[in-house]
């Protein structure tokens, strides 16, 4: 018997032993708790393996079918175990409303500690109470319609230059390109152009390293992705501290996110500002890029709606020509009714944030079930968006479903309640502006279309390989 065979056998015996011990402890604890507990029961559902639970099903296989199967088997409130934590998944509009809105004070935000370290402990996502309310006010002040209507031309400039950079390329990774676009829009909404001009490449490099380490194993020793990401994070903090310092020297407060953070009567610390700048880039970029990638795919696959969007955008172009205007205005974007419905339907179908996590701060009773203190709650946006009780024929792409008023709490692409998305108006604006230029100036086809209906996960649900496409200018093909 070779040395490696012996090692394998010993390892097998060891891991089997550990599993048996863990299972025994788990069953004993379950029996003990079961016999002691009176009153409401835990929700139905399988918790999966001891400790590991159903983590693999959620992260490594197809989470969409896992989430759907769970709901079909156990109903809209069911239990599971993810990353070592007991969780309750909820997939009814009423339960999601309770967790996110009406009883939000009983459910605090919940993230693994490594994510908090990486994004910054003072970032908005991890907060509750007064500090959260203050941050939210400052963000909404920078992203409210009255402010971002003044940024339409900046967004348009970024969209046009993004699309021009795609021209003449035989293979465009839609998701990667949309990430660059959303990143540039996010930075524009926070800083003045001259503040980032000199350090732009450094910011991109550091953010790229941060992104690579975000989902890595959280071991902070030299050489690991996590360590490199933490180093890149410190570098970003340093860059943003420099910008804050130089801004303190100018008198006028610009109408952007940094301006809002710095013009706070209680004034945020440099650390709080850096954490929230990094946090907003994080929240703004991949979400918007995923929706834009899906809309390119859905419009490609649904020529009738593509033609309707083109017609609407051509009408706007005609009006601009007649009014002797060359740049889009906020009012133009408000006329994009069909395009907005296509975006709504894309957000419903793709549900790029399929679920979120909260943690019960005390025992909560819901529909006769007990949700014990410390358990995670997972409102499943995707399941709500794909439930035939909420949307007829839910797997069909049909923007016309948004012509009528929806049932309450059935459509939550930007979340609900106190932690709902403060950047939703900016996100809608940047998506509409990009679609205006994409649909009026270009045609696109799928490159590598053989697999175009396959999906990739991790952490966002995306078309396979980020949707490779080719584009051609309408002007070139018309000549
Ligand atoms: C289509 C694009 C976007 C989608 C689908 C989206 C979706 C969401 C959702 C569902 C939440 C709530 C998460 C939860 O309850 O746990 C959220 C929160 C948040 N989003 Fe967005 N978002 C988008 C774009 C943006 C943009 C462009 C920004 C900023 C410019 C932004 C900033 C934030 C922030 C800061 C939060 C945390 C709010 C809090 O904790 O109070 N998002 N987003």
TrEMBL record:
A single MF term (Gene Ontology): heme binding
EC top class named in words? oxidoreductase
Q: Which Pfam families match?
A: p450 (PF00067)
Q: Which residues form a coiled coil?
A: none
Q: In which pathway does it act?
A: Plant hormone degradation; abscisic acid degradation
Ordered alphabetically, the record's keywords are: Heme, Iron, Membrane, Metal-binding, Monooxygenase, Oxidoreductase, Transmembrane, Transmembrane helix
Q: Give the range the annotation lists for the signal sequence.
A: none
Assigned EC number: 1.14.14.137
Q: Does the keyword S-adenosyl-L-methionine apply?
A: no
According to its UniProt entry, the protein's GO biological process terms are:
abscisic acid metabolic process
Q: How does it sit in the membrane?
A: Single-pass membrane protein
Q: Has keyword Repeat?
A: no
Cellular location of this protein?
Answer: Membrane
Looking up SUPFAM superfamilies in the UniProt record yields: Cytochrome P450
A GO cellular component annotation here is:
membrane
- Which cofactor is essential here? heme
Reactions catalysed, semicolon-separated, are: 2-cis-(+)-abscisate + reduced [NADPH--hemoprotein reductase] + O2 = (+)-8'-hydroxyabscisate + oxidized [NADPH--hemoprotein reductase] + H2O + H(+)
Q: What is its main location?
A: membrane
Gene3D superfamilies hit by this protein: Cytochrome P450
**Residues the entry annotates as binding heme:** 421
Q: What does this protein do?
A: Involved in the oxidative degradation of abscisic acid.
- Family from the record: Belongs to the cytochrome P450 family.
The identity of this protein, by name, is (+)-abscisic acid 8'-hydroxylase
* Native organism: Zostera marina
